[in-house]
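Pair request: fold both.
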Amino acid sequence: MKRKCLLLCALLAVISAAGDAQSRNTFPSQFVDWLATPGMRHATVGVEIVDLTAGRTLYVMDEERAVQPASLLKLVTTGAALRMLGGDYVMPDTICQTDTTLAPLPELIGYNPDWMIEDVGSWYASALDTVPDAGIELREYIKRTNERSLNVHAEALPYLLSPEGTLPAGLHAIKSYWDSCGLDTTALVMYDGCGLAPADRVTTHLISQLLAEMQNDADFRNSLAVAGRTGTVNYFLRATSLSGRAQLKTGTTKSVVAYAGYVRGRNGHTYSVVLIVNNSTDPLTLMRKNIEKMFILLIP
């Protein structure tokens, strides 16, 4: 009897896997051709596109590989903050609850030794001279963080989520929260909350899971920039049929170009889209132009 049960379970697993594979589309030839171009041949590309309306996965590629997220990591940080603190939480002017001297936020953040200085930029240092937007509600704070990809703002959040007021404890709290939601955080590595550390790692699938988990959270969705109109995607998809129809977060460093968020397709369905490219040798402008083409190609 036990052997029969094991055989039945194995058969059901095979059938389930086959059905799942049949529900996923084969990538169009234009996408395959793009990956074969000289600038993309040595790149790592993760893709996961899910039809949230129909509950169906359209496309996946290398979705379980750990890759550098750049500022897509802000989705992990800001999503957890909204869930753990609530959108009406008012941002304090300190981040260490046990600090009796009430040291201002920038003094406690400082520089993270895991950041690469060339990725930080000189503007980051000047931003540390002032407390970022103390006194506003968290929903507005996170909208500014994600829409404009503000590193200082994102870096403050792990401290607020930690009872000890420390970065390591805050990052652990974030990962533990997503674990409790059933997300696969096995490959998640966080050295900061903003994505500047070169050793940060996510999987495309984790970001896709997070988007599905947060799809009905208005504060989270409203924090994302609107393609062709606002924030870091002000020019992305502007002259296309998807202008104004995509709410996205970008991730960009010298080695990363990434987009993740929600797209309202031409068929009226809502899609979660994650596309992460590491180590392409193409210029950034060409990368963005080609990724625009892929969005239009892959979203019905």
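--- second member of the pair ---
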Amino acid sequence: MARKTCTGALAAAAMLAITGAAIAAPGGSMTLLGVVRDFKASHPDFGPGIGSTGHVAGLTANNLNSRGNPTLSGAGKHVDTEWLNIDGNPIMPGSASAAQGISDFDIAGGTVVSNVAFAAQIKVIGSALTAGAYERPVTLQALIGDDTLEPFGSFASPVSGNVNDDQSITGWANEGGNPRSFVVPNVYAAGTPIAVVGKSWNKTGNAPTNDSNWQLFRSADSSTGDSRVIVLRDGDAVPTYAGASNQASAAEYIADYVSNGIVTLGDNQAIFLYELGLNSDYQDLVVLVTLATDASYFDAPAPEPTSPCFTTADAEGALGNDNAAGISSASSFAQWFADVPGANVAKPHAIKLTQDADGYWVFETDDFTPLDRKGFGNEGEAHNRYFTFEIAAEFTYEACAGQMLEFEGADDAWVFINGAKVLDLGGTNAGTAQVVEVDRAGLTDGELSTMKFFFAHRASDSVPFRIRTNIPLKTKGKVTTATGGLYD
């Protein structure tokens, strides 16, 4: 499906009213070096069959992953009406950038497996295990893919890692009480399993505040399909196990998540019930796992932003239907900005921004074609149009200096400052622009910050591309590619 080029929109964008003066006299230039990656027309996310999806927000998580790349969130929605700042310029959709819960997950063999990229919160609802004369310490660790997490103290230390409701048995060494929760800082790829391992301890000496006076009693690992672990989700039957030794039952432990005889969790939650003793009461450790598109989902509501540098008087837009923007999967998206032999071919590419009459650095073209007859070649077309482009740059934040960056083009584009998303132009679309007002990013005056720009062109028509900024940017680090040697 052909789409209109946005030559007219580019011209109109130059007329956007940008608050704050430019910071350099006209006539200079600024070169930024990045990486361009070529994709074949047969790639599921690129090619002549990709038509216009319009502006889609929320496709990527709000924060870059541990490798410094955007991650597909699976929460894209069509932008029916753009968000505007006080000057009438389009800005990143506020509500689209809010993280969302993830209900698309499976429970398989005692593990929770999300079908889209995810962040997670691990919460201990409660833990009780008695030996009759004393309470047994309980410790736990979470296994997420290749990562082993011990968010509540050492898994191997019954003293510093104890999460039993009665922490007096180990001298209250593990500060806090239940429920206690931990937000996993990373965003993980779709298909990454989440498991929890619980361990209980038996007293061997008379100094319970020393680890040496405890030894392993029982353990249960949900990743092995251990029968001593039960995993429940919304709509499951409430467990009927009675509590041993006059302890509360499993049903009582999860009473806040029960209604009319069924488990009533959020559709993005699962509860793990553990048997770590000699009885089958399954309340020795109770853990709630919650999934979301990124970690900001678990934060308290942010206060209305205030700044001496600008007035927040945004005109809120509107989001429409769910929209995947023609992206096949999280695994296919993960190839966009990574060197993957066979899937893409990478090479360094520089763009030169020149200063206009107002002192803004500008790079502008109605057809950005950095890969003609390179990489996989034009594949029988007039131009090679299936590629991504990324730039990492550094700048020094100057509070209230009106620092800004504006981008317009086709197709997908995202900008992150210090890992947080500030521009969201997902989808194959022509003529959509956004402005980044850096004063909104919560930076510290004089702080050296990193700006990462990600762009993809996936359809067969021309590639309008325009960057305009008053920020002196400098390429960050040395640009290298793993697939550059495959280049012709």
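Observation on the second member. The longest strand covers residues 344-355.
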